Amino acid sequence: FILPAMNDPETHKYIYAVSFHSWRGCDDETLHKWAASSRTLNVPLIVGEGSTDASAHVYPEIFAESTFALYEINLYTRICAICQPLSIVQWQLTSDYSILWGEGVYGSTGPLRPTQRYWNLKQLASTPENAFAIPFVCNKEEVNCAAYGNAASGEYAVHLVNNGAARQAIIKGLPDTVSKVKVYVTNTTKGMESAGEVEIKDGTAVANLPEMSFVTLISL
Fold first, then answer.
1. Could you tell me the pTM of the whole model?
2. Which Gene3D superfamilies match (predicted)?
3. Whether 44 contacts 17, CB under 8 Å
4. Between 119 and which of 134, 185, 191, 211 could a Cys-Cys bridge form, CB atoms 3.0 to 4.6 Å apart?
5. Is domain 132-219 annotated with CATH 2.60.40.1180?
6. Residues 141-167 pLDDT 10s
7. E strands in 93-176
């Protein structure tokens, strides 16, 4: 009913946000339509239920698989780049779609511990507060990116999901006020682990992207 609501001015006084679920059908064209709807109505955009597979609780071992975690963070990175949502509400932070493993969650054993999905969410949440999406161009199909910045506070973040072999990322056009960034990596063996700091030279940062990893650069 989004189109009838948008096309009827009488409904606009009752609309305070546009919300969608990200379970399926989130190709770029559809995401652009959701973004356009919130701009047209001049209200925030919210992902009211965020994840990739509503039936995943039926085969819960998938929650501990790296491929599932990577697919999810790819989706969120694309949503952030295209839609700039006010919030992504993770569905759901309970044992049904758990981002933790162990202590009997779906029969898992061992101590309760964070999964790769947990670290992906924590790393994405490191985006500076009140930052806005920044347009960018990426020349590698295997890499999804989202760039955010708050010019007033001088805080910036670049999120990159590398879906292929290890490679270097050359990030250009960073503001003169940024002299250094801290790099974080999440993959099968690392959970938002610091990969050190990178100096910015002439607005350019060069960072290593490990294979099949989620990498974030945060300004210092």
1. 0.95
2. Golgi alpha-mannosidase II (2.60.40.1180)
3. yes
4. 191
5. yes
6. 999 999 999 999 999 999 999 999 999
7. 100-101, 113-114, 132-133, 143-150, 155-162, 167-171
CB-based contact 47:97 (threshold 8 Å): no
Tokens (6 digits) for 196: 């050190």
Write out pLDDT tens, residues 2-42: 999 999 999 999 999 999 999 987 999 999 999 999 999 99
80-90: b (≥16 Cβ within 10 Å) or e:
bbbbbbeebbb
Coil vs helix vs strand at 50: strand
The domain locations on the chain are 2-124, 132-219
90: cis peptide before it, omega within 30°? no
Alpha-carbon dihedral of residues 71, 76, 77, 81, nearest 10 degrees? 140
Q: 2-124 maps to which CATH number? A: 3.20.20.80
DSSP code of residue 9: G
